[in-house]
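Input record (one chain):
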Amino acid sequence: MALLLALIATQAGVSLLVRTAAARAFLTRQLEKSFGRTVEVRGYSAALFPSPQLDAEGITVGEDPAFGHEYFLRADRLSAGLRWMGLLRGRFELGTLQLDSPSLIFTRNAEGRWNLERWLPAAVSTLGAPIAAVPGAQATPAHHLQKIEISDGRASFKLGDDKTSFAFIQVEGSVEQTGPGRWQLNLKAAPWRSGVPLQLAGTVRVRGDIAGTSTRLQPARLQVSWEKSSLADVFRLTSGQDFGLRGLFAGELTAESGGTAAETAGNPAPGDWIFSLQARATGIHRWDLTERDDNPRLSVRAKGHWNPGVGIVAAEELIVESPRSNLRGAATFKSVAGSSFEARIDSAGIQAADFLDWLRAFRPGVAEEIRANQFFTGGATFRGWPLVLTEAGFSSAGGKWVVPGFNAPLEVHALRGGAQRQKLIVESFAVNLPPAQSAPAAENARRVAGKPATGNLAAGIANLSLVHDLELAVGNIRIEGQTGSVEDVLGIASAFGRRLQNGWELKGKASADLRWEWSKGKTPVWNGRADVTQATLQLAGLNQPVALDSVRGEWRDATRKFTLGRVAAFGANWTGSIQQTASPPSEFATTETPAWNFQLQADRLDATALDRWIGPRARPNWLQRLLPTGLGGASAPEPPSAILRRIRADGDLRIEELTIEKLKLRQFRAHGNLAALKLALRNAQAQWSGGEVKGSVDAVFSAKPRYDISANFDRVAILQLPWLAQLSDRLAGTAAGNLELRAEGIGREALLASLAGKGEFRLSKVELRGWDLAGTMAEGEWKQGTSKWASGVATFHLSEGGFDLNSLRLTSAANEFMLKGSVSFAEQTDLTAECHATGRNTRAESAVRFLQISGPLTGPKVSLEKVTAQQPGD
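The corresponding structure, as predicted from the sequence alone:
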C-alpha cells in the first residue's frame, strides 16, 4: 500500500513539477537538444506510469537558419514516449513521438539539401561506422526515436525562399525505426494545391523503408500509389490548369536505391534510384460530353533509373497501351544545365478503331455506325519541351471505313510518311468514295431501260497529302478529287461530327483542289478552288431550290470568291461574283463578320416569282421561318436569324427586266448594302415607260419589316403607264416628278394597309384624243374631238385606304382643267373635274359645270353637272 501511495504521489508530483517555470525551461532545452532546433511550447504535462511520457501542447519547432526562418514543425499536441534507460542514466531520450494535427515544411536550399537531413539518426555504413557528416553542418541530434505517429497532418514544400502551392493534407500513418538508421514508412495523404478547387484528388500512399536523410535516404525501397483520383484533378494538381479532360486515374511507383538495387542495376552511378512506374487512365472524355462505355483507356509502364543529384530520369523501357494499340520505346529527361527531354518510339502499332474511340470521346455527333478496319505502324523521336518531332516513319497497307449512308465501305489506299530534315511529309494517297444507298435503285433503273451497267459505281475519289515544316511551323493538307454526288462528301463530314451544312443543302457534281494551310502565329486558311456543276442548293427560307449550272469557288488566303457561271433562282438566270475578305483581328474588340462584296446580274426578275420563292401563301411567312424567335414562334437551338444577322454584304446589282405587278423596269441598276438585317439600295436607276427613274430604298427586316422608298422620274410616257393601259390609244404626253413611300408589315394586305407617302408630278404636252373636254364642259353636252394642254402639275398623297389626288391642274392657251379626288386600293374612284376658259375666251358664266367620276376604275361612271352661281347675299 505504501508503494502504491508512493507511486501515486510520484505521478502527481511529476504532473505538477512540469508546470513550473524551471521544469518547463529544462524540458524545452531537452527538446531543443533532441530536435537540434529551437522549440516553443505553450504547456507541458507528464506521466511516469505505465511508461514515461511527456506531452507538449502547442509546440513549434524552429527552422535551421540554413533553410530559412519559418518554422520546421508545428503541432497542436506532441506526445513523446521517454526511454527508462535514458532516464536512469540521466539522459533525455525520445522513444515514440505522436503528432496531432502537425504541419511540417520540407525545405530544399540552393545547395540541393533538405532541412529534414541531420534530424533522423544517420545510417550505418557497411563497415559498421556512421557515415561521415557534411563538413560545416550541425551535428545530428543525439536521440533514439523508435516511432513517429502522425494523425491529420499537413506537409508543405519550399524551394529556397519560395513556398510551392502543392502540399499534402490529411496525412496519417507512421515512421518507425526497424534498425540502426533504418526507417519503415506507412503513410497516406490527400494531395492539395492552393487556389485550385478539387473534386476527387484521391489518396497517395507511401510504404517502404529508407535510411537516414543525411545519407540521401539510401539504401531505400519505396512503394508509392495514387488511387481513386479524377484525371481532371491530376492535371489541376500538377499544372494548376483544367485542360477539359475527364476520367479516372490510378498509378503505382516502386523506387529502390543502394543495396540490392545497386547490384541488379549493373553499373549504377552514385545516388541512382531504380524505378518502375505504372499509370492507368480510364473513361477519358471531354468535360462537356457524357461518359460512354467505349471511352478510351490508356496505360503507361516505365522502368529505368533516376539520379536526383545529377538531375537525370531515364526510362529504358517505356510502353503505352490502349485496348487495340501500343507504343514501345524509351525516354530521358535532364534538369541540370538547362532542361532537355527526349522520347523515342521504337515500334508503334495503332488501330484506327482506337482513333474512333478518341474521336467520339472528344467530338459530339460522331455517328455510332462508323466502323474502321485499318492498321498503322511506325516509329518516331521527340526532343525538347514542349516535345518537338525530329524523326519519324510510318505506313499503312490501307483499310476500309464503314460510314452510314453508303452501300460499301470507304476504301483508303496504302499510305506512308515520315519526318526528316525538319519536314513531316505524308505522301499522296487515294480514298475511294462508294455510291450512296440510293445508287442500287438508279442501277436497277438503268438495267430495266436496257442500258449497260457500269463497272465502277464509285461516287468519287479524293487524293490527300500533308507537308509540315517542323522548324518554321508552316504546312498544309492538300485535298484533290472529284465526286458525282457532293452531298455524299458532306454526309461523310456530318457522320464524323463536322456538320458543314447549316441552313443549306447542296446536291450535284463537284471537283476540287484545296489546301488547308497554317503557319505560326496566323489563323489557318483555305487555298485552292472548287467547281460545282449540275447541282441544286436548298437554302433556309426559300421554297424552291437554287439551280447551280456552273459555280466556281476560289480561296486565296483570307479571301474567298464565288463566280456564278449560270445560276437559276427567283425565276431568273444569274451571273456575276460574290467575294469575302476577312478583316484582321481588332486590338480593342472582337472581329466582326467580314462583309461580302457582290457583282450580280440577272436577265429578268418578277415579283410574282419572288412571292413563290419566299412568299407566305398557304405556309409560314419566310421571315417567320428565318426569324422564328423574333416573330414569336418556337425558339430553335440555333435559329438561322443568328446567321442572317451576322451577314454583311455590299455591291452592285443589275437586272435587265424587273417586274413588280404592273410596274416594269428595264436595265435596273443599284448599289446595295445589307448589314444587321438592314438593306439599303442607293443610286438605283432604271428605264420605265420610255423615261428614267432614280431613287433609293431602305428596308429593315425586323419582327415587323419596314420599307422607305424615295424616287424621282423623268420623261415618262403617259401612254405607257400600266394603270392607263385601256386609254393608251387616247392619251399622249410625258411626266416627271418625285414620290416618297413608307410601308411596314408582311404580305400584300399588310403593306397596302400601312402604305403612306406623298409626291408631285409635272406633265407636258398632254393630249386626250376622242373627247373635246373643254367644249363638253362649255356647252353642257358631249363633244368629240381632241383636248390638248401644254403643261400640268399635280400633288398627291397616299394614306390608309388609297390614293388621294390633292390637285391636278392642266393648262393651255385656251383653258385650264382641274381634277381632284381619290382612288382606293380597291380601285374605286371618286373624282371631280372642272374646266375654265382662259385668256381671250374668258367670259362671265352664270353657272359652272363639272364632271363627277365614280365607280370602279375599270368602268367608271361619268356625269356632267351644272351648278348655278351664288348671288350676293345668298
